[in-house]
Amino acid sequence: MSSHSEPRLFAVTRRTGQTRWYGCLLVSIRDHFLFSGMMILAAVGLAGCQTFSQDGGMWLPAEIAGRHLNKEVVAIRTEDEAAAAQARVGRLVRRPLTAETAVQIALLNNRGLQAAYNDLGIAEAVRVQQSLPPNPRFSIRPLSSSVESEIESQIVADVLAIVTLPARTEIAADRFRQAQLVAALETLRTAFEARRAFYRAVAAQEMVNLLTEANSAAATTAQLAKRLGETGAMNKLDQAREQAFYSDVSTRLAGAQQRASKERERLIRALGLRGADLNFTLPKSLPALPRRAVALSAVEKEAVRHRVDLQMGRIELETLAKAYGLTNATRFINVLDAGYASKIIKDKETGSRINDRGFTVSFEVPVFDFGEARVREAEQTYMQAVNRLAHKAVNVRSEAREAYRSYRTSYDIATRYQRDVLPLRKIISDELMLRYGAMQIDVFTLLAEAQQKLAVNAAAIDATRDFWLASADLSAVIVGGGTESSEAASVMPAVTARN
User: Fold this and answer.
1) Which H/E stretch holds residue 369?
2) Helices marked H in 232-307 — which ranges?
3) pTM of the complete model
4) Which residue has the higher pLDDT, 37 or 165?
5) Which of 30, 89, 185, 459 has its Cα between 20 and 30 A from that of 11?
6) Element (H or E) spanning 219, and its range?
7) How many CB atoms sit inside 10 A of residue 477's CB?
8) Residues 307-344: pLDDT tens digits?
9) CB under 8 Å to 434, separation ≥6 — which residues?
10) DSSP code of 357?
11) DSSP secondary-structure letter at 277?
12) Cα–Cα distance between 244 and 253 in angstroms, integer?
């Protein structure tokens, strides 16, 4: 019977020993976590943990969009927000578009812009993460022999990370501010892209309407010339001229229709439309010219003051300066870990236990790398940012002057067409009609005037379009968002007059 009791006693002894071993382990872990908690509380006292904002940092892009565009922006992050934005877009596309409604639709519906807002959310997550104290590292090493068992454990934290936590938190906040400006810049870029696409689409459709009327008139003229030729009232040279003009207008109409389709698709992409929203209606003509051009005596100063990309450059410079100071301060010691260490030794025969406590420190010995390379890299990175910001400021001033000259020139040209050229062509047409009614001129002189009038009307549409594009470019130069050349190829060059 004793032979059966010994295995049970041995099993109980093993379980009892295991319980004691785990009991020592739990006491050790408890002490370590108490120390860990004190270290973390100290780190929080140094810097303070950041939290996520309610709007995800969208207040700055919204403020810039409201100030420079007078429009609303929203970061769509829930199904309800997506449904509300889609419902508003549906209401806007049900009536004829204007430049302002096109911009608002793009700010609500463009998925590329929403992706930029997702980048802002990622940047906020990085900011919060950078503000958190480093997690302590816990290690335990149990050893056992026939005589004694030993548990060696330690908990280590990155001292440099804790000490530099306030500086790193401040740098992370600057980076997040940069990300907000990047989102604002993308908002402006999307808005101006939609505005330009709207003007191009309307101008292309207006040119189609003009050429459709001209093509109908040219077809009638060509048919009349053919009949007069059959009766001998018109020679072959004049017949060929009328047929050539009709063919030329027909070719230009086909090109204008293709251009209008292309510009409409560009507008659709800029607005992010799909499905039933594609059936939107464009106005029949471009907006009327303003009564007077905007006078900007200090356009360079306005651009330097308001450009979002320059603000980003200034924040980048400040951030690199702080990072350079941090690199310089930690140039000699790049790794410094310290923490609590303990060692528990248990004699298996006597059951006595020895508990040794202390601390552990580990650091990088700068034998080969004294941090000079890191400091030099940080210094050159900072100077690179200085030079890039100065270069950008020079370019911004030049772009502002160029954009304003283009704006004023295009306004003067478009105004000249509306104020002088078109009214004069109307007077000429009316006088020729009077002379034709009095049988002082023939029908061919009247038809030649119709060709000249077509050329002038087409040029007037191009001039008006170029002005509105230049106006968008000027706004983009002042606040940011990218520019495009307003010297786009005309939908239809001046129609060649009959020789």
Assistant:
1) none
2) 236-271, 299-306
3) 0.76
4) 165
5) 30
6) helix 165-231
7) 26
8) 888 888 888 878 777 777 766 655 544 544 555 556 66
9) none
10) E
11) G
12) 14
